[in-house]
Amino acid sequence: MRITKKNSPNKYNGRRGWKPDMIVCHITEGSYNGAVSWLCNPKSQASAHYVVAKDGRVTQLVDLKDGAWCNGTSTKPSSKVYYGKSSLKAVRDRRTNANYYTISIEHEGFWKENKGKLTEAQKAATIELIKHIRDEVKRIFEVEIPANRAHIVGHYEVNPITKPHCPGENFQFDEIIKAVSGSNSTPTNTNDFKVGDTVTVKRSATKYATGQRIANFVKGSKYKIKQLGADKALLSGINSWVKLSDLEGEGGTRNIIKVGSKVKITGSKYATGQKIPGWVKNRTHEVSRIAGEKVLLGANGGINSWLNKNDIKIIK
Ligand SMILES: [Zn+2]
Reaction catalysed (predicted)? Predict the structure, then answer.
């Protein structure tokens, strides 16, 4: 997925020995640009790992290896943010600052508008983002974040006294968790298209990303990608946004690497930089996991090694 990166100075370097296993959802109470700029301003003494806009854009402000300053808890019983006041058992049991073991996502919006209900584009982006976070946390920390309500939580559960309305009563936790747990890997469509690529609108497509009906002459026709969103592409010629799932690349869908794809190795080194022996290159491998630009090859007795996507080719 497409993530813009900015660096906020408001963070811990590292996580004081903790590994993240909880994703905390927030509402910005402000605009997307306003939140991104405020959370990067040293005066705010606040940050988040990610901010998701109403239109689905995503900016990352803090590296996952570092703790953001977003939903801290205090060890002082007199504090309003004392960990003992949390409604989450894990937060109470860990007796430390929740910023050490959480990943925070801010969502553009105001609670008074619709009580935290995300727009469709925002919800779709958050689903993709959480899948991406789970893949990254697995890769970096070897931690599997369970897709359930104990691990994908709201700020109001961490700090019930100070943040009872963050992200809000209408935030779509259940829908998001259902979508996240429905697949154990990031769909790769979002990584496979670039601006300038020629794509074909699938014949099965019915509506543009904006909801309008796609005319028949557009289906099956080729267009160049002018601009990319998290889950959609602006096509030149028709000048319309089409969902990535409704597009096919130059070589058709067979070029898209998926979990289960059979591949050969074309490169000479693993993602770790180690040299790949000849016998490994001669074999056919199966993709067992995808994380960003890397793929894990060989499930069930295979080589079980990470390779860069550029160093493999699909054979069927
Ligand atoms: Zn919050």
Answer: Hydrolyzes the link between N-acetylmuramoyl residues and L-amino acid residues in certain cell-wall glycopeptides
> Which of 137, 153, 181 represents a domain boundary (last residue)?
181
Question: What single string gives the DSSP state of each residue in 83-130?
Answer: GGG-S-HHHHHH-S-GGGTEEEEEE-B-HHHHTTPPPHHHHHHHHHHH
Distance 143 CA to ligand 1 centre (A): 24
Residues 105 and 143 in one domain: yes
Indicate the number of domains in the chain. Answer: 3
Pair 54, 118 in one domain: yes
Distance from Cα 40 to the centre of ligand 1, integer Å: 16
Same domain, 57 and 197: no
> How far does the centroid of ligand 1 lie from the alpha carbon of residue 166, in Å?
5
Distance 163 CA to ligand 1 centre (A): 6
Q: How far is the CA of 70 from the centre of ligand 1 (A)?
A: 7
pLDDT at 96 over 60: yes
123-148 per-position pLDDT tens digit = 999 999 999 999 999 999 999 999 99
User: Which protein residues have a CB closer than 5 Å to ligand 1 (ion)?
Assistant: 26, 155, 166
**What would the pLDDT profile of 153-187 be if each residue is shown by its tens digit?**
999 999 999 999 999 999 999 999 999 987 544 44
- Lookup: tokens for 229: 């969103």
ipTM of model: 0.99
The CA distance from 83 to 94, in Å, is: 8
